[in-house]
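Worked Example 4.2. Read the sequence first, then its structure tokens.
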Amino acid sequence: MSDRLRPARTEVLAVDVGGTFTDVLLVRGRSVVRAEKVVTDVRRPEQALQRWEPEQAHRRPPDWVHATTLATNALLGQSNLPLPRVALVTTAGFRDVIEIGRQNRPSLYDLSFVRPVPLIARQRRFEVRERTDAVGRRTLPLRPRELAGLGRALRSCHAESVAVGFLHSYLNDRNERLAGRYLRGKFPFVSLSSEVAPEPREFERFSTVAVNATLLPILSEYAGRLERAHERRGGTALAWMSSAGGLVTSREVRKKPVVALESGPAAGVIAAAALSRRLGLSRTISFDMGGTTAKAGTVVDGRVQSVPELEVGGRTHHGRPARGTGYPVRFPFLDLAEVSAGGGTIITRDRSGGLAIGPTSAGASPGPACYGRGGRRATLTDASLVLGWIGASMLGGRMPLNAAAATRALSVLGVPVAVAESALRLAELEMARAIRLVTVERGLDPARFVLLAFGGAGPQHAALVAEELGIRRVVVPPRPGLFSALGLLYADWRFEARRTFPKELRSACESLRRELRAGRPGWRTEFTADCRYRGQGSELTVPFRVPDEESVHASFRRLHRSTFGFTLDRTVEVVTLHAFAMKNRSKPHLPAAGGTGRASGRRRAVLGGRRWTIRTLDRATLDRRAQVEGPAVIEEFDSTTLIPPAWVARLGPAGELELQGPVR
């Protein structure tokens, strides 16, 4: 299967497989010609791609661009897929590193805290006699007899996937490569830490290769099914959204599935960055509320912020990761804060009788009570329906909602309207906290940003969340419920490689450039360096284009001062050098807003503790010169925008909805 998409004149199918809904966009040339939103099949999520055929028999099938939450859901046990039996091979004396971990504690005085269960049980962790020292000298070569005994031990524990992590292999990987060459002749799935995360800090590196080895059989099988289905239809290209916000090949995902851990959430932020550039917005908050979670990120001057590590499978506290509760993965990720506040988030009462939301979600099956699919527990979507914030159906009338079922589910918790109001208010506070994590805690004032809201439920809550943060301007893009799928079409190809403790920056950059651009003529290369003062235990990431050591060090000093308020009179060192090979792809035009096909009307709603008769308008019928005053709702095929009292909305130049709030 080809690594490259065909020219833009052919068709491209963008599919974002979420936990509740799967969003699909078909693009021909630069125009979106078809848009769909369907309930995700949690057992076979790829069905949304496989059932799409060319509109005419003589047409070649579209190229596929794909994002999925399968990797994260598998680790969280939410995909109905059993985790494979994984074994770890490591240096003698280090088998327990992934269990000892760090001394990070999510709650300093919690005596009952229990560390996360290691992904690899101790009886499947094996040691071999080999050693590379801290400067990269191979002081004890790996012997053939060690490998022979290792093979017997791995077969006896019925390992399905093998992770290899040797001490200091990021400096010299020869022993790891010897082990990998032997094991790959006997086992179908083998991950080497020097290939997945060639960086210092054994715990984080071993954790990353353990996660990769766990996901390898799952995503390899899933990617294989997609490839075979695509090839049967005559397709040639299948691209995946990576956690870093770029596209990678299916081959890359089958080799390093950690690249797709945050595949789904990344697509929405890329779309937000593209729209921000189109509208000339210098500071934008990406606010994505779907069926399962709500996510927030920042876009400054058209660029999305990123982080070098994610702790996957851990707990969060008001959107803040609880360190020490999950599995660290060293890989570039877009900087996102995520909270359990999606349309399917379940409303409960805690042990003290107080109302609570999440972290459990009703998902796609059975879904909220109002979906009529067997769900009996109240969710945020049920609350919105009972309050009149959304209408009696979704997806242009194809998905009727049962208000009586929603009322019954909410009545278990108390008076339905009161419960609904309180639950949605809690959700808005949670979402505001997530936004503060990526603004206030990064030294940014959210009031100086524009809130760009999308996802099926994002526009419904955007203005109220903005009020909480002092934001006066909200933008809702065309097709907001399908906006993440659009992000797949705005993403560019992006591959990553790295070097640790480079001796000379310029030569290391040139070496990485040659490695990444082999077979990729015309691609550009960008670099970042994880820098620190010598003796420090953590790094800051410095982006640069020209590999000049003095300017990189100066950039680090400025970043250190702006981050921590001081500098040190010490030598600056580059710990890890990252290179990214990138190639632009043709981008589609923004799709037109999709109407519901219904005329404007009125309905009863509860807002701010008051009962209102509010106007309902079809977005496709809005006049560009008209100004819609709240309270009102603007409906379309894939989402509903709520305009609270004292807010006004109008159409912008790109078909976006612009909401303006009151001056405080």
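Now turn to a second chain, presented in exactly the same format:
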Amino acid sequence: MTPTLLMDQPPNTASATPTPANASRAGARGVPLIFEQSTPGARAVDLPALDVPEAAEPAGLLADGPPALPEVGQLELVRHYTHIAARNFSVDANFYPLGSCTMKYNPRVNETAAAMPGFTAVHPLQDDQDAQGTLAMLYQLRTWLAQIAGLDEVCLQPCAGAHGEYAALKVIRAYFQDPQGGNAPQRRTVLAPDTAHGTNPASCAMCGANVVKVPSKDGLVDLEALRGLVNDETAALMITNPNTAGLFDGTITQIADILHEAGALLYLDGANMNAIAGVSRPGDFGVDVMHFNTHKTFSTPHGCGGPGAGPIAVRSFLSPYLPVPQVVCETDAAGGSRYRWENSRPKSIGKVRGFTGQFGVLLRCWAYIAACGPEGLRDISHTAVLSANYLAAKLRDQYETPYFDPQNKRFCAHEFITVPKRLLAKGVTLVDIAKRLIDHGIHPPTMHWPVHDCFMIEPTETESLAVLDRFVEVMLKIADEIAADPEALKAAPRNAPVSRLDEVGAARNPVLKYEG
């Protein structure tokens, strides 16, 4: 069934100012609010008969009266939530080209796998012998991730990308503090390019490390500046490659050499692995430690703060410092494989979480990799990169792309940024363009990051050519509207359930209570 786009709905002429208490606030589509549908005595829940002796409520715990909740039947309740869901933007119904956030389609079969009773009912403290299937899955996943990374060992314990950064920095710190390891406790400075993800310096601060910014030149790390910053107090460089400008830094092996020659390590923020998974292994271009955002690269929907999983991958000399417990595989007396949790790593940094990252996220990751295989992962990366370059090439005449220049053989990775200076000079803002996209059922791209007045656009590998072409058509149409009447865009969105809000007024004078 073709989803109904917001642009097909009647215009919303409602004001952003509060309505009188006696006025209906049903909205553009004419559906009453749930409170306006309330009928005294209606019920949406049938509770089973009481199967335990009834007990009197303790004195003082009863409310003066029932909560002021709407009273509706089951069908009205279902219709209410269905209506609310239809008013939301979602990756199931809309194009979601958020740069860096990777709002991709995620196979529903992975949701089914994660809901299997054999997985949902297992307890992390269950005896190893009673959880062999679960442990086998976790062990196989960490070996697969190690192969994708081109590194020696993976720990699944961190529960998010920034948590993976934190755990990896703790491992680096433990290595340099170990007399039998790096034996350089003075190495407490971490370098971060100005194109790095914002969580990188925050993670350094959490670990007590000094953070030094490395300038970029034309979107890439300035090698001469890097050479001047590396010294015997440098522990590591945290780099995102491809970076947040959507560029793969081809000097990455030179960057690795600069660090290694000075006795420092190279850390990779793996948030953009969906551009190179199956194509290029970080270990092969000099990375010593990295984290994966499995919830971005390998299936699980990303956004709204979680859930997530941020496994870290390391070279063998860093393995002794990995968090415990670590799932390991051993050969039993019959020659078969047995899996268990290992806690005996004296140099480990200890736990950063109870056992693993979000288990359901890791299971979805396993299912995704198992379904794709090496060729499938490679095709995903190729398609993501091709889609981004296709959009950049189609839009660059109207929406300037400072780092994308095909005539000089400079291409982007899985995402690109546009800074539409010529359009903005006509009197519109980036927000005006973003709000107009909503009228066409397209979620606005990431704005003002990594540079001011930019869109960061990431089509992902899952959108069809028809969807990409429609996005181009809409973006060019908006450019034409700006040329004809830039002031008209300031009223957008015109066809959404909620019109342009007074965001300052909403923040200063929020309406927190329904008044029917």
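Notes for the reader: Confidence is low (pLDDT under 50) at residues 1-29. The chain has two domains: 109-371, 396-506.
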